[in-house]
Design goal:
347 residues, Rossmann fold, 5-stranded parallel beta sheet, two-stranded antiparallel ribbon, 7 strands, 41% helix, 9% strand, binds thiamine diphosphate, binds magnesium ion, thiamine pyrophosphate, THDP-binding, pyruvate, PDH_E1_Alpha_Subunit, Pyruvate dehydrogenase E1 component subunit alpha
């Protein structure tokens, strides 16, 4: 067979600028305490939500964020609340709590009450707070990536200086619309941080079984989008990475990917029997890298006494119990609410 003529060699790839390797955030004692409080609030809130689900107070789906607390708390603590927007999937309670939104209105949303943040009509997966520029809460895997790209387009179009933080999972990272969004975002240098919360599983499928390229921070390479892999169990590493990514995007350099290596301790949702991994696997992660224990140790090293940490814990338990009582007692929406907040048009 005749040999194919040699192809002209490809032009050399020009040196492209890379983001700096993020340094861990240097937190003051007050900042560390603040991280600790937010993460512990998410943990206790989610435990309580799990209990209320078991008691039948919460219907439908309920996906808990236990184990992943450092990601939302670390990243969102770096945002400018006046300008920046956030969007995520259905595992969204933690992202709302990280904003400091009242746990009462989040819990009341879970129990489908009129006082809930989406008037009791969204439930666990569809929480919104436009006041905080938090655009959901989405049940369709990967949908938030293209919607988030739209939010970033809006930031750029109206020149408002904002950046969108679009979270999605390791499973969602295999969806087609993610890559259409990447292409457009890089082409138009949109101000967006794509945050892949790699919690190692998409329902019952481990990332290694589902992903040909399991180093997810590299998923933007063919679109020239840089990526950084981050220890998502370390809130200081998360915050440090957020600072670096925000500096990149705010400088007009376009999108960036953060792959947060994390782990979910509970099942995919409350109805997951979790037969695809062993208890030992979960326990080993808890023992070795629990994000809250990590910060607790740092606080102790800074001289914070056990009593002080105990009183933080007590205050949070009280806050969560009050949220649960409120969510059980406050009324359900009026039937007439079925006809509000809906779009009726012909196309
Ligand atoms: C388009 C679409 N396909 C499938 C599903 C069903 N589904 C819900 S969650 C999920 C797994 C997603 O996993 P991942 O992106 O890793 O997020 P995690 O649940 O781990 O946070 C799937 C397949 C869905 N909701 N939407
Ligand atoms: Mg996952």
């Amino acid at each position: 067979m005749a040999k194919a003529p040699a192809r002209p060699s490809a032009p050399p790839v020009p040196n492209r600028e890379r983001p700096n390797e993020p340094a861990p955030f240097q937190a003051t004692k007050e900042e560390l305490l603040d991280f600790y409080q937010h993460m512990l609030l998410i943990r206790r809130f989610e435990e309580k939500a799990g209990q209320l689900y078991g008691l039948g107070f919460i219907g439908g789906f309920c996906h808990l964020y236990i184990g992943q607390e450092a990601v939302a708390v670390g990243l969102q603590s770096a945002l400018d609340g006046e300008k920046d927007s956030v969007i995520t999937g259905y595992r969204d309670h933690g992202h709302m709590l990280a904003y400091g939104i009242d746990p009462k209105v989040i819990m009341a949303e879970l129990t489908g009450r009129a006082a809930g943040i989406s008037k009791g009509k969204g439930g666990s997966m569809h929480m919104f707070s436009t006041e905080h520029k938090f655009y959901g809460g989405h049940g369709i895997v990967g949908a938030q990536v293209s919607l988030g790209t739209g939010l970033a387009f809006k930031h750029k179009y109206s020149n408002d200086g904002g950046v969108c933080l679009a979270y999605f999972g390791d499973g969602a990272a295999n969806q087609g619309q993610v890559y259409e969004s990447f292409n457009m975002a890089e082409l138009w240098k949109l101000p967006i941080i794509y945050v892949i919360e790699n919690n190692q599983y998409a329902m019952g499928t481990s990332v290694n079984r589902a992903s040909a390229e399991d180093q997810l921070y590299r998923r933007g390479e063919s679109f020239r989008i840089p990526g950084i892999q981050v220890d998502g169990m370390d809130v200081l590493a998360c915050r440090g990475a957020a600072e670096e990514a925000l500096a990149w995007v705010r400088a007009g350099k376009g999108p960036i990917i953060l792959e947060m290596k994390t782990y979910r301790y509970r099942g995919h949702s409350m109805s997951d029997p979790a037969k695809y991994r062993s208890r030992d696997e979960v326990q080993a992660v808890r023992d070795k890298s629990d994000p809250i224990e990590h910060v607790k140790r740092l606080l102790e090293e800074q001289g914070v006494k056990e009593d002080e940490l105990k009183s933080v814990e007590q205050a949070i338990r009280k806050q969560v119990n009050e949220a649960a009582d409120f969510a059980e007692q406050t009324p359900e929406p009026e039937a007439g609410e079925l006809y509000t907040d809906i779009l009726v048009e012909s196309y």
